[in-house]
Amino acid sequence: MNPETNKVAKSISMLDDNTLEVIFQDRVMLDLQAMQLVDQFCSELVGDLRVKRLIIAGRNTQISKEARVYGQLKSKELKNKVIAEAVVVNSLTQKMVANFYFAFVKDFYPAKFFTDIDKAKEWLSEF
Q: The CATH number of the domain where 45 resides is what?
């Protein structure tokens, strides 16, 4: 990852042959530029693979409205590349944002939020 991506993501890696894991930093605001950088790195990492995505929100991490809209539009573009997506959240605010996001992406691929990483991984293993 480049230094700019490191400011918002702790790590972006493949857990196995078809599972992408993105762990966000704690206490950051994910703005449009940050989301675009993370998205670009993820795209380069997975290439043409269809993947399951495990997204782990950082504690007290927030996302701007512009970044949320970008994520929703990007999800539509990725509907043939994402098998399923699990998002691990840490707060009520993150749960509310996840619910709003999932209402939008539910027609593209299975998506669910969790508060436990192991349960999220277990759910993804079903796909």
A: 3.30.750.24
Measured distance CA(126)–CA(123) in Å, rounded = 6
- Which residues, 6 or more positions from 119, have their beta carbon under 8 angstroms from its beta carbon? none
Tens of pLDDT, residue by residue over 77-90, are 888 999 999 999 98
> Considering the domain boundaries, does residue 44 fall inside one?
yes
Contact 67, 34 (CB under 8 A): yes
Full-prediction pTM beyond 0.85? yes
Whole-angstrom distance, CA of residue 124 vs CA of residue 127? 6
Q: What is the pLDDT of residues 88-106, one digit of tens each?
A: 998 777 777 777 776 766 7
